[in-house]
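Blinded run. Sample ID left blank on purpose so nobody reads anything into the name before looking at the predicted structure. Input follows.
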Amino acid sequence: MNAIRSVIDRLPFRWLLGIAIAYTIALVVGTHLPADVPPPAIFDYDKIIHFLAYFGLGVLWICVMHRWAVNPRYVGRRLVLAGVPWIIADELLQIPVGRHCDVFDMLADLLGLGCAWLVCRGIFGEHSV
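Blinded prediction complete.
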């Protein structure tokens, strides 16, 4: 984990922020493109994609907050305060473009953010995230 942290710490902050913003934009565009999507299913490869997408989003923004010197005690709270409304809005705003809003997608997204938080606690230290 120290090797991962050293790479993150050496990456210029502007690059890290730019990557996080670009990833977020790509995620929004990808989830709002009109598509012929089958009706939601509880267990589908789509849930794995949702989990991985939000895991990546969570890791990137936690790294940004860590480098931005956000008080470590508040990183998890900020992740929840920003992440939960984002997840709900992301799913609801798929309806106007002909996609389905799925509660199980929201759960997969939330699990991805939660796992990102746990992994980052291991990378940055238990009391740093």
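Unblinding after everyone has recorded impressions. Residues 2-124 form one domain.
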